[in-house]
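User: Hello! I'm new to structural biology and keep hearing that structure can be predicted from sequence alone. Could you demonstrate with Signal peptidase I? Please show me the input and the output so I can see what each looks like.

Assistant: Of course. The first part below is the input, the amino acid sequence of Signal peptidase I. The second part is the output, the predicted structure written as tokens.
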Amino acid sequence: MTVSAPTIEHEVVPVTESPRRGRVDVRDVIVTIVGSLGIIAVVWFAVSAALSLSIVVFVTGSMAPTMPTGTAAIVQTVAASELAVGDVVTVTRPDTGTQVTHRIVAIDPAASSDERALTLRGDDNVNPDRDRYVVSETGRVVATLPGAGAIALALRSPLAMTAITLGAALVVAWGLWPRRESRRRH
């Protein structure tokens, strides 16, 4: 006895090339760029929160030539016990409340065991800062990018933040807006 296996019939469907094939759609490129920047921003905020990172911008030349005016630095909050002479740290001036970022030239014990008294000096300064800074934790510079500070400061302005927010919203709306081809098909 002979048994034959069932056969499966396939329907051949001709494939037509899309009229858009091979062309770059400007909308897709812009939406991809804006989406990528959004993802980078979300990742930065998550990583900076998890690792206690922040960005400082050098607005004076006291750390030149190593870190000239306009340099952006990534600063990580660390315990005073982790600091060493030669580290560049960001501290708050006790008299003005402004931040200063200088190099540690001396570390001495302070009243509390978890505190240290830091003597700082800008690389371009002849003398150390007149104040000693007593800290239990402070920001230590872990990376720098000369010139990026001007961009960071510009992006923090209210006008820039408004423009970025509106621009991103418009790009998202544009990306979600039906294309002409889609409207004709339906």
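User: So the tokens describe the shape?

Assistant: Right, they're a compact way of writing down the 3D structure. Reading them back into a model, for example: The longest helix spans residues 26-51.
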